[in-house]
Design brief:
The protein is of the alpha/beta class. The protein is 39% helix and 14% strand. The chain has 11 helices and 8 strands. Strands 1-2-4-3-5-6-7-8 form an 8-stranded mixed sheet, with helices on both faces. Strand 5, helix 5 and strand 6 form a beta-alpha-beta unit. The longest helix is centred in the C-terminal third of the chain and has 30 residues. The protein is globular and about 50 Å long.
Length: 333
């Protein structure tokens, strides 16, 4: 005599099948096929951590790049990239210790993103490693800042399209370049003491000398010889039409010593003299760029303090002046 099997209700069958499917998927998520399993599920809404500071190493074609991050105070999706100067260090981005940038934006709903490294790089994609200092990798900073880093930040809740970028000196020129060619990523760009008329007489030679002084980098490995089209592609004065509609903050001081210049030793006087010359050159470049935008009828906010040299205390003050514009543009109050 055979006993009749108990019949399962349709609802119970569906519940059991659902448990079985989950049991099959869960081990895969932790293994090699994890990415595919997650991608096939419903999209996961990421949210940035609400405040706090973190250091991350982000994969790139140059190897792991250290990035210092101060998260938006209330978990917002906006980010401000802060770019370093020509002598960028390999351990920390100078915005994090030469200025009070972290304190300035600690209570604001914007994530500060400070990539580390890139001495003499102009944050651009180079043709080849520098052949004068034994560099082993080819700089690919534009690729990192517009593809690899945003992809990582997106997994942490930062938008790919609600960002600003601001830099000083080398970083100021680069900020405008990145924003011009990646308008889908950047809504704001700021240049503090940047070199914005690279095609002006003597500027290419000046950049060559400066890069040799800052790490013995060969500018020909970056944009090729002076007649290469890459020089024009990275000159804000030339690509200015691409900046139409972008929120911009542009600043340069007179080069005259101000409140933050108080030399006491010979080396201080030497450094101050250098900073005066660099800032005066930046001012000439920036004024020419201002005229260029005016002829194109492209608006920007400008700041031309009566005193100030090419040094961090002045850039920290300018970052604070730009804060309202940045937060308004990114809706990050």
């Amino acid at each position: 005599m055979r006993l009749a099997r108990p019949r399962l209700s349709q609802r119970l069958k569906e519940r059991l099948l659902g448990v079985g499917a989950a049991a099959l998927i869960l081990p895969v998520v932790g293994g090699i096929a994890g990415t595919a399993a997650v991608a096939s599920a419903a999209p996961i809404a990421h949210r940035a951590p609400a405040g706090g500071y973190e250091e991350a190493f982000v994969d790139s074609s140059m190897g792991p790049i250290k990035v210092q991050i101060q998260w938006a105070a209330r978990g917002g999706n906006a980010a401000l990239y802060l770019l370093d100067g020509l002598r960028a260090r390999e351990d920390r981005n100078a915005w994090s210790f030469e200025t009070n940038a972290l304190d300035q934006y600690r209570n604001d709903n914007v994530t500060l993103v400070m990539p580390v490294g890139g001495q003499s790089s102009f944050y651009t994609d180079w043709y080849a490693p520098s052949n004068m200092n034994g560099q082993k990798i080819t700089y690919k900073w534009e690729t990192f800042l517009t593809e690899e880093l945003p992809a990582y930040l997106e997994t942490r809740g930062v938008s790919r399209s609600n960002n600003g970028v601001l830099g000083l000196s080398m970083g100021g020129s680069a900020a405008l370049t990145l924003a011009a060619y990646h308008r889908d990523q950047f809504k704001f760009a700021g240049s503090l003491s940047g070199y914005l008329n690279i095609s002006a007489p003597g500027m290419r030679e000046a950049i060559r000398v400066a890069m040799l002084d800052a790490g013995r980098y060969n500018v020909d490995s970056m944009w090729g010889p002076p007649w290469s089209s890459a020089w024009l592609r990275n000159d804000p004065f030339v690509f200015a039409p691409k900046l139409e509609g972008l929120s911009m903050y542009i600043s340069a001081s007179s080069g005259l010593p101000g409140a933050y210049d108080q030399p006491k030793k010979f080396i201080d006087y030497y450094n101050t003299a250098n900073a005066m010359g660099l800032e005066a050159l930046s001012l000439i470049n920036t004024r020419a760029f201002q005229v260029r935008l005016a002829t194109l009828k492209i608006p920007a906010n400008y700041s031309f303090p009566a005193t100030g040299t090419h040094s961090w205390a002045y850039w920290s003050a300018e970052l604070w002046k730009a804060r309202g514009q940045i937060l308004d543009t990114l809706n990050a109050w």
